[in-house]
Design goal:
The chain is an alpha+beta fold. The protein contains two helices and five strands, in the order E-H-E-E-H-E-E. It starts with a strand and ends in a 16-residue tail after the last strand.
């Protein structure tokens, strides 16, 4: 059975900038985004699959990008190759709750 962690991230920076930084950090830590849910411009939920040995480095790198919940050092073995699932909830402080996507008219 795959083990899980729940992390909370909060940021007051630009939403698109934070999303790009988080994607880069996950990729650099050899993690994979396996699912995501967008909740307007207020929040984003990611499901990340990562080897146990990369969990600590991922948490540390995410802490540079935004404010992240505490990490329990006893959770992961830095030498293990077992897969873990991290449920990451990102909250954007600048969100207004009314995200609109403008779709241009396409002739045809």
């Amino acid at each position: 059975m795959i083990k899980k962690l729940n992390w909370q991230v909060k940021s007051n920076d630009d939403r698109n900038k934070v999303i790009e930084q988080v994607k880069e950090v996950i990729s650099a830590s050899d993690g994979f985004i396996i699912n995501f849910n967008m909740f307007s411009e207020l929040a984003l939920s990611l499901s990340i699959e990562i080897k146990e040995s990369g969990i600590q480095a991922l948490h540390k790198a995410l802490g540079v990008v935004a404010n992240i919940s505490d990490y329990n050092d006893e959770v992961a073995n830095s030498e293990s190759t077992k897969d873990w699932l991290i449920l990451l909830n990102i909250t954007f402080g600048q969100g207004q709750g009314d995200l609109k996507t403008i779709v241009p008219d396409v002739p045809g």
